[in-house]
Amino acid sequence: MKEKTSYAQIKDELKIYLKPLADAANVITEQEVSDFPIFVVHQHSVDIGINIVDKEAVKGNWSVNASTLEEFVTKQIILPEKVDDFKTVYKNHVGDICLFVLSDLGAKFVFVPLES
User: Fold this and answer.
1) Could you tell me the pLDDT band of residue 5, with boundaries at 50, 70 and 90?
2) Is the distance from CB of 49 to CB of 67 less than 8 angstroms?
3) What does the alpha-carbon distance between residue 53 and residue 82 come to, in Å, rounded to a whole number?
4) 60: left (phi > 0), else alpha (psi -120 to 50), else beta?
5) What is the pLDDT of residues 48-99, one digit of tens each?
């Protein structure tokens, strides 16, 4: 239960980022970069995606990098044999933002509704 509470707290902290992330997701899909944008949410430096929110600049707790399913496969975060499973889960979350949250709790995919 503690883990769920902690991820719920993280999701709550990320609400202020949803509009810029939705805008970035639209750019990624409209420019046909990928049909599967993923936002890497982190507190320490990571080597994936392009930084779009720096926690120091926004005086927040989280930085965010824009990435894609394709990059996650290239970097072997998602194995090629799991791509179809990931796409199925992703498509079940239309209207949500896909986050890959790296925290003290570990790494976890989280889908956050834009209306949350």
Assistant:
1) very low
2) yes
3) 29
4) beta
5) 999 998 886 677 788 899 999 999 999 999 999 999 999 999 999 988 999 9
Report how far apart, in Å, the C-alpha atoms of 20 and of each of 17, 59, 104, 106, 107 are. Answer: 6, 16, 24, 24, 22
The amino acid present at 96, given as its one-letter code, is D
What is this structure's pTM? Answer: 0.87
∠ CA 109-110-116, nearest 5°, is: 165
